[in-house]
Amino acid sequence: MLSNNPILLLEDDIVDVMAIKRALTQLNISNPLVVKENGEEGLDYLKTHEELPGIIFLDINMPKMNGIEFLTEIKPNERFAQIPVVILTTSNDQQDKLATFAKGISGYMIKPVDYSQFKKMLQTIAEYWKLSEHSY
Amino acid sequence: MIELLYIEDDEIDVLALKRHLKGVSNLNLTVCQSLAEVKMVDLSLFNCIISDANLGDANYETLKQILAVHNVQFISGNQIEGEDIWVKPISKDNVERFISQSQIVNLKYIKELAEGDIDYEKDMIETTIRILPERLLAIKKSKNNINQLKKAAHKTKSSYRVCGIDNALLQKIEDLTDANDISEVSYLIAAVETEINTAVEELKAFHI
C-alpha cells in the first residue's frame, strides 16, 4: 500500500505497538514501520527525513507532545498536511474526536486495534490514495 | 491468586464452602462472620465475595448497599423474589462457576492476533506482565494530580483491553477526574492495584 513509503506510528505503549505490528503483518503490509514514542520525536522524524510516511498512526495520549499538539504542528505545514493521519486511542470521548477531526484526520480507531476494522480502514485509505494520485 | 471473601455467620455453611474449595488452587479464602468484621477488612482487596443475605447485625438491604460496587453473590436460606440469590446449602457447581467467572484475564484478543503463533502469544503476555505494574505505579504516583491521574488511568485502559480485563474501575477514576473530584479516588486506586496484581498472577499462570 502507498508504494513503499514508511508507516509512522506514534505510540508510547509497547503492547499497542506489538498489536499494530501484528495486524500489519497479518495484512501482508511490508512497508517499513517507524515507531516513535511521542509527538516531538515524530515531528523530528518528519523534519529530518526526505521520504515522508504514507500514513501516520497517532496515539492521542502521549508524553511530551500529545497527539492533538502533534496535529496542530503538522497540519498547517504544506509538506506534511496531506499525510493521512489515523488516530489510535482508548477514548470514545466526543471532545477528543471533534478536536482531531477538526484538525483534518483521516480516521479514528479505538485501541486495542480491532483487526477487521483496521483492515477496512487501511483499504479505504489506500483507495483514496490511488484516486487522488497523490505522490510525494 | 483469587481473593475470595465469604461473609457468613453460620459455621456449618463456612465448613461446607471450605469443603467445596478443597483442591482449588490459586485461591485465598477470608471469612467474616458479621458486618462489624466486614467493616474491618479492605473490600477492595477481594476479587469476589459470597455473602449471606442476613447476618446477626445486618440485613440484606444493608449488605447490598455496602457491597454494591463489588463482585458479590448473595446466598440465603430462602429465595428472595426478583433477586439473583443462591439458596442454601451452597452448591459446589455454583461456587466453581462464580470463581471461574471471577478470573479477570481473558486472552481472546491476544489469541486472535496471534493466530496460533505461540511465540507471539508468549511475547505479548510477557510484555503485559511487565507493563501493567508500570501503569499501576504511574496511577499511584499521580493520585494527587487530576490531570496526570486522568492520563495514567486512560493509558492503562489499552493494556486492560488487550488482556480482556473489564475497565470499569479505570473509567470510574477517569469520570472522577472529569468531575474534578478525586476525594474518594484512593479507594478506587487500591481496587485497581488488586485487579492488576491478580491479572499479573493470572497472566503468569497462562505463561507457564
Describe the structure.
The complex is a heterodimer of chains A (136) and B (208). Chain A is an alpha/beta fold. Chain A has one domain: Rossmann fold, CATH 3.40.50. Chain A has helices spanning 14-26, 39-48, 67-74, 94-102, 115-132; strands at residues 7-10, 33-36, 55-59, 85-89, 107-110. A 5-stranded parallel sheet of chain A has the order 2-1-3-4-5, with helices on both faces. In chain A, helix 2 (39-48) packs parallel to helix 3 (67-74). Chain A is globular and about 35 Å long. The two termini of chain A are 14 Å apart. The relative contact order of chain A is 0.19. The model of chain A has no long low-confidence stretch (mean pLDDT 83). Chain B is of the alpha/beta class and 208 residues long. Chain B has 2 domains: 2-101, Response regulator (Rossmann fold, 3-Layer(aba) Sandwich); 108-207. Chain B has 9 helices and 5 strands, in the order E-H-E-H-E-H-E-E-H-H-H-H-H-H. A 5-stranded parallel sheet of chain B has the order 2-1-3-4-5. The longest helix of chain B has 24 residues, at 118-141. Chain B is globular. Chain B starts with a strand and ends with a helix. The model of chain B has no long low-confidence stretch (mean pLDDT 89). The chains are: A alpha/beta (136), B alpha/beta (208). Chains A and B meet through helix 1 of A and helix 5, helix 6 and helix 7 of B.
